[in-house]
Amino acid sequence: MGKRAAFITIGQSPRTDILNELRAWWPADLDLTVDEFGALDTLSRETIDALAPTGDEARLVSRLTDGTEVTMRATAIHERIHQIVERCDRTCYDFLVLLCTGAFDGLHSKHLLLKAQPIVDHSVAAFAGGSAQLGVLVPLAHQIPKTAEIASHASPYRGDRWVTAARELSAADLIIMHCMGYSEIMRQKMAALTGTPVLLARRLLGAAVAQLL
Predict the structure, then answer these.
(1) Looking at 16-20, 169-173, 208-212, which range is the least confident one?
(2) Residue 202 to residue 121: CA distance in whole angstroms
């Protein structure tokens, strides 16, 4: 019997850019029904614009179905994600997958819930060990962790800051592209620019999902 899973994005669904890449790492004969939900689904552009952060508010970055990048207040998105998970809990799923590497503390489901952030962070910790200099790449300068010694930013959705980001990460022994928006092509580009091993959040999450299939 096939399985059924819900994939949840903080932007608009469907995220064909992510799901098509994840499927490439899954078994070829996989029988999986996928439902997608987005925190910004059905919202007007005016409503989405009203979710923009101000000052030093924590922010999250995603994209709309037309590819447009959007930056939103983390607190507003957390609330909407909680609502989606609650709706999913009223349906029979084998598991849920949150397609965001931001921290969603207190998010629980009656189903098995895979959150990208702890999967990525714990995987990176295992790779980095106690001696490697870890470089972190995030979409926005505002998202760079205060604890990160080597870090840079480059949006996966707009602009071309890759050469600058690669230079800023050049001292790292290992780089993590810490956003689900980054693709395998972007990983290969960063690895070529830096000559450094690069971990991709999508691949780490994709491997975790594959274990369930």
Answers:
(1) 208-212
(2) 12
